[in-house]
Amino acid sequence: MEFKIIRTNEDFTEELTRTKYVDFLFQNLSPFGDPKEDIEKSIDYAFSDAEGKGGFIVAGFDEEELVSELIMNSTGHKGYIPENILVYVATKAGKRGKGYGKKIIEKSLKIAGTDVALHVEHENPAKKLYERLGFNSKYVEMRFKKSGKQ
Q: In angstroms, rounded to a whole number, what is the distance separating the alpha carbons of residues 125 and 129?
């Protein structure tokens, strides 16, 4: 598996545009995904130069076929909250179970070089992969939404 690390909009190519990157995640995160607008915001955050922001995205290829993508955002914290959060990772439908997800996560952990958190729904089958890679459930995430919508 070969990887392309993308840190700015200029790192996208004609073969892998930002739109194609977002579309891939949107299609392959289902049913655990988010709207394209949220994926776009995560990329903007990863590419930001603002203090406490930043990150990177990774595209994974097998024989020039795009098979996996990942977005990592910096949290701006150290110690009490992990320095990075793995926001999105997806493997192409039909290519799952072949180790692509594991490889792209391992690559991203090396690039991040510090602690990494992620959120995963209990029923997401990828949870087992994350546990095998060393992620553990330290906390239960709870959210309060001011709008009252959960």
A: 8
pLDDT, tens digit, 9 for 90 and up, residues 65-82: 999 999 999 999 987 889
Token duo for residue 133: 């890679």
Q: What does the angle CA 37 – CA 40 – CA 45 come to, to the nearest 5 degrees? A: 125
pLDDT in tens, 10-46: 999 999 999 999 999 999 998 888 999 999 999 999 9
Q: What angle do CA 124, 131, 109 make, to 5 degrees?
A: 105
CATH of 2-132, one of 3.40.50.150, 3.40.630.30, 3.40.190.10, 3.40.50.880: 3.40.630.30
The pair of three-digit structure tokens given for residue 15, joined into one six-digit string: 């073969």
What three-state secondary structure class fits 126?
helix
Domain locations along the chain: 2-132
3-state helix vs strand vs coil in the chain, percent to 5: 30, 25, 45
pTM above 0.85, yes or no: yes
